Amino acid sequence: MQYFSTKKLILPEGYFISSSQFPIAKDVNRLLVNCGCDSFPIQKLSLAIKNSNFFFSIQSEFKNKLCGFVRVTSDRGLNANLWNLSAEPGKNQNVFYSVLLQSTLEKINREMPGCSISVQAPVSSFKSLEERGFILDPNGIRVMGYKL
């Protein structure tokens, strides 16, 4: 199923999305822990980010702080996997998740059409995932993991 967004989501003032500035692995780990996820060894996480097909991060312009992140790996034929989806807890968390997901799905649709998409994500992202058309927990499947 191809993804076509119904409306363009806008980040709150003072935030921007980037796919060119590599985030610092320590900052990604901080986000993951704040979302209730496990952290990863810094070197392995840095390597995983660099070896991903692409990533998106949300930054605060004023605080120079990482507020959202997702990275994508793919065989560019059948599968695309979203990893380390995370967003700073607080009033903008759902907006951050939604913008990350919309940007990611649009890029997958353009560059990797026909790929099935799987997501490794924290519970805090479930509402945004459902709003983007993801079916949570199909047929009782609960976990897909990959050790970095």
UniProtKB/TrEMBL annotation:
Gene3D superfamilies: 3.40.630.30. This is GNAT family acetyltransferase. The lineage of its organism: Bacteria, Bacillati, Cyanobacteriota, Cyanophyceae, Synechococcales.
